[in-house]
Design a protein that fits this description.
Layout lengths: L1 H9 L1 H21 L2 H7 L4 H8 L1 H8 L4 H24 L2 H4 L3 H33 L4 H24 L4 H19 L21 H31 L4 H4 L1 H24 L1 H18 L5 H15 L2 H9 L7 H29 L2 H20 L5
Helix pairs in contact: 1-2, 2-6, 2-8, 2-9, 2-10, 4-17, 5-8, 5-17, 6-8, 6-10, 6-17, 8-17, 9-13, 9-16, 11-13, 11-15, 11-16, 11-17, 11-18, 13-14, 13-15, 14-15, 14-18, 16-17, 17-18
Length: 381
Amino acid sequence: MIRTISSFFIKPERRAVGLVFFVLSLLFGAWVTRLPEIKETLNLSERELGIALFFMPLGAITLLPFYSAIIAKWGERKATMVGIMGLLVAILLPVLAPTYSWLMAGLYTLGLAMGLTDVAINAAAAEVEKQHQCQIMSASHGFFSLGGMVGAATSGIFIWLDISPFIHLLFWSAVFAILIPLVSKHLLNTLEAQAKSKAFQLPSRAVLGLALIAFCIMMSEGGITDWSTIYIKEDLLASAETAGLGFAGFSALMAIGRFLGDGLIAKYGARYLMILCCSISVMGLGLTLIGSEVSAIAGFSLAGLGYSVIVPILFSKSAKVKGVTPSKGIASVASAGYIGLLVGPVVIGFIANDISLSGGFVFLMSLTGLALIMSLRSSWS
């Protein structure tokens, strides 16, 4: 694992990809740990918060038909930079929202920036794999998980120091507004001319299968990301400082799994790891339902380990589907997964309001079980 991480610091094209993945998740990790304060400040119910969070996937869906066309026109480098620099500004909007309507508008803008960045940087990572004949997708997503861990874990310090959510996020935005341009020139563009096509085309059957698994898995990840802190704090009555440890553990074990993932995929095969990891995640979500903060933190952490290599495998497979250009394959799978990532919190919000928040995590167990069944039925190695 140490060798994998060190290679990202030594090789500039990997360092650029790793930094963008890290920043994307760190900002999101920092933001979700301040959700309870935003909810309290605006006096929102679980249902109202769930509706507001829906505007993030709505922002991502707005550009859904155009992701591959944008990347083909601008190239992976420019598309990534436009997305990430926009994100550094957009992340501040929700915490500045004075009203419920402004919160929804801010989340919509944030969704636009996050969607473009996510698809573009995955395409850039796939291009590194192609041009340098290497496997870095799992490790790249490891930096994403590492960023979420750092963002969530350091939030406890900001909360303890009684620093406002705006100053908290402004600090990170300012730091990365300086660092990211320094490495941007190392983001790779595709060397092949990308064929012009319709703005939107239905994915092939092979890509659609990968996209459906991505939707289930990332919907579960999104539910855990946005609601684990609130679940531990409000349902299990933990302190604000402790509540963030569920998401921190989730991100930490996911990061470890992803940094080990490239080697494990080469040794055991993608299908075997998919089946094993889905099973581990189901068990982890089961632990969160026991009713103690310790078991919940352990359960979310175990779920993170299980989910760790699934999405990187799906992105790598989508970039290699025969008859489909890498940018289109990745855009289809990333878009489906990203919608799941952001729709998950909305669904959990409705379930929490009508049933219970623990019922929401039972729903996520079912989604992961569905992904397990689809993996068992898959024919790829």
